[in-house]
Amino acid sequence: MPIVLAQPHERLDDVMGLVSIHGRSAVVAIYDEPDDHLSFWYVSLPNPALENVLAEPQGQTVGEFIAHGTPDGARTFRVRYWTHSAITFEIPCYVRSDLEHRTSYNTHLGALGKPLPEDSPDDPELAD
Length: 128
Known about the structure:
Order of helices and strands: EHEEHEE
Largest sheet: 5 strands, mixed
Structural class: alpha+beta
Helix content: 10-25%
């Protein structure tokens, strides 16, 4: 799947133009340097089966667009040069730090020590 890199100050039309040239669904990775925040957004192809919504305002930035979020899980949207709407949703990020967090199901025994039975009831190593 293609990945398009963007910054919040870039125009939404320009970023979706980069998505369009791939001719398939893409992930847009948005890095906000001042806030040190990285987010990933799935963007589908424009599709005539989707409700045809009004185009996003011309000149809107990616940061303004993602600030609206996806309260219903996914968001139908359209940019001015697309005939049909597309959907987008944020892909949840998981940041792991072995020094500060413990996973509930550790597949690498010894990395954090042998997991305790109450930490991972589904661990096949604990079934003995």
